[in-house]
Amino acid sequence: SHFGRAGVPAEQSLEDMVERLEGDWLGPWKGLLLGCPVDDKYRDLIKKSATQLREEIKSTHKVELDEFLSEYVLDCYSILSEEHLTELLSGLPISEVLSTVHDLAPSAAPARHPTLLALGPDLDLLPWESCKVYRNQPISRVPSTNFALTLQMLRKLPVKLNKEETF
């Protein structure tokens, strides 16, 4: 078996690093790096549920909840810990709000579009793809956002095939 730092197996050392990356660096915002949901009905459900959540919080607690934050909390509910939700919804009576969020959040995680990571040299060496949040999420690295946009534009161009030159 290969060992990393101070006699710790390399696999455990990598797992610890990935947990710190996801927990400490991304924290409650780890869902921002997920791809957008593929299904428009799911997105509509999130928007409708977020409106309900904001109305409930406003009428019960006299607090305005940000539209983006309410949608984010509902969309990412299944991947966020109670600690993360508490941090995101600070200033609100968390047990009551979590009960409402739990009731409004979709029960199943949606299929998502791929996440494309365009990382600078300081972040490129980190194992982003190993984070738990990406285990059921298509994720790829691209050299730059310009590359990704060019690739997307090329996919939209019509392709002409010469049937005489194909077999």
Structure characterization notes:
- The protein is mainly alpha-helical and 167 residues long.
- The chain contains six helices and two strands.
- The chain has a two-stranded parallel sheet with strand order 1-2.
Record the SSE blueprint.
Layout: H1 10-26, H2 40-61, H3 67-75, H4 82-88, H5 94-104, E1 115-117, E2 139-141, H6 145-156
Parallel strand pairs: 1-2
Helix pairs in contact: 2-3, 2-5
Labels describing this entry:
single chain; mainly alpha; 6 helices; 47% helix; 4% strand
Give a quick summary of the entry.
With 167 residues, the protein is mostly helical. Helices cover 47% and strands 4% of the residues.
Order of SSEs: HHHHHEEH
Overall geometric form: globular
What is the mean pLDDT?
A: 86
> Which class do the helix and strand fractions yield?
mainly alpha
The unreliable regions are none
Count of alpha/pi helices: 6
Strand order of the largest sheet: 1-2
Distance between the termini: 51 Å
The proportion of strand residues reads under 5%
Helical content band: 40-55%
* Largest sheet report: 2 strands, parallel
Tell me the number of strands. Answer: 2
Radius of gyration: 21 Å
